[in-house]
Design brief:
This protein is mainly alpha-helical. It contains ten helices and three strands; from the N terminus they run H-E-H-H-H-H-H-H-E-H-H-E-H. Helix 3 crosses helix 8. The structure holds iron/sulfur cluster (2 copies). The site of one iron/sulfur cluster has 9 residues, from loops.
Length: 228
C-alpha cells in the first residue's frame, strides 16, 4: 500500500468509527480537555498526517512544543495493540505499563483547545464518555465502545504495519524531520529509534464473544477500504 492509499484507508477508519458511535450518548465536546494528557499514543501514519498538516499550514512551531516534553514523564508504550492481541492469543499476561494522567497535559493544548483538532489521532478521537469527565470525575465508556476502540486501533496499526507506534511527542518529533518523512512516505524506515516500537499486522482481533455479532457489520464496513 502506498502512502496515499494508507491515508485514504485511515480517513475511512475515522468515518466508520464516527458512524459506529451514532446512537450512543457522548458528552464529549470540542474544548473539553480533561482527557488531553501527555500520554496519547499513535502510529506513524497518523503522525505523518499531522506532520504534513503542520508543515502545510506553517505551524512547525508545534513540533517544538511537542519535543519540550521529551525529558518529562509520559506514557511510552512497550507493546502495540496488535502485539497485545498476540500476547492474549498465547494466553500470557501482558506486561504492566505505567501511565498517569497527572504527569501533565498534552503539550499542544492551548486555552483548552486542540490546535490540530481536525487531524487529531485516533487516541484522542476514541476518548469518548457518556458523561462529562469534569462532572463525573472519570470517563464513562460502554464496554462495547472499549471493544470498538481496540478493533479500530488494530486496523490502523495493520495498515501501518511497516511503521512505528509511540507517544505523540516522540513520534511527531521523529517526523519533524523532512528526511524521516520522506523515508516513511517511501516505505524506507530503518529500525525504530529509542522510545518508538515497530507496528505489527493483525493476527487476531480483540473482540470478546459477547460483542462478536455486533461488531461484524462494523468490520465489514472497515474492509471496504476506498481506493487511494
Ligand atoms: S473523554 Fe471526558 S474530558 Fe475527554 S472530551 Fe470526553 S467528556 Fe471531555
Ligand atoms: S492532540 Fe489535541 S485532542 Fe489530542 S491530547 Fe493533544 S490537545 Fe488533546
Amino acid at each position: 500500500m502506498g502512502i496515499h492509499e494508507k491515508l485514504a484507508a485511515l480517513e475511512h477508519i475515522y468515518r466508520v468509527y464516527e458512524d459506529a458511535l451514532v446512537g450512543y450518548d457522548v458528552a464529549c465536546r470540542r474544548g473539553c480537555d480533561r482527557c488531553c494528557t501527555r500520554n496519547v499514543t499513535l502510529s506513524t501514519l497518523e503522525a505523518y498526517k499531522i506532520s504534513i498538516h503542520l508543515v502545510k499550514h506553517g505551524e512547525e512551531a508545534l513540533f517544538g512544543k511537542l519535543s519540550s516534553v521529551l525529558g518529562k514523564p509520559r506514557f511510552i508504550p512497550r507493546i502495540t495493540t496488535n502485539g497485545l492481541a498476540e500476547i492474549c492469543l498465547r494466553g500470557e499476561d501482558p506486561p504492566e505499563e505505567a501511565s498517569d494522567p497527572d504527569w501533565g497535559p498534552c503539550p499542544l493544548l492551548a486555552d483548552g483547545e486542540c490546535p490540530l483538532y481536525a487531524v487529531r489521532p485516533f487516541g484522542c478521537r476514541c476518548m469518548v464518555s457518556a458523561r462529562r469527565c469534569d462532572e463525573a470525575g472519570f470517563a464513562e465508556m460502554a464496554p462495547f465502545i472499549v471493544t470498538l476502540n481496540n478493533v479500530m486501533l488494530q486496523y490502523i496499526e495493520h495498515i501501518d504495519r511497516d511503521g512505528f507506534s509511540g507517544n505523540l511527542a516522540d513520534l511527531l518529533t521523529f517526523l519533524a524531520s523532512d528526511e524521516h518523512r520522506r523515508r516513511y512516505r517511501e516505505g524506507n524506515l530503518d529500525s525504530p529509534p529509542p522510545g518508538l516500537i515497530p507496528n505489527r499486522p493483525v493476527r487476531a482481533l480483540m473482540v470478546p464473544p459477547r460483542h462478536r455479532e455486533r461488531i461484524m457489520p462494523i468490520i465489514k464496513a472497515l474492509e471496504k477500504v476506498p481506493p487511494g
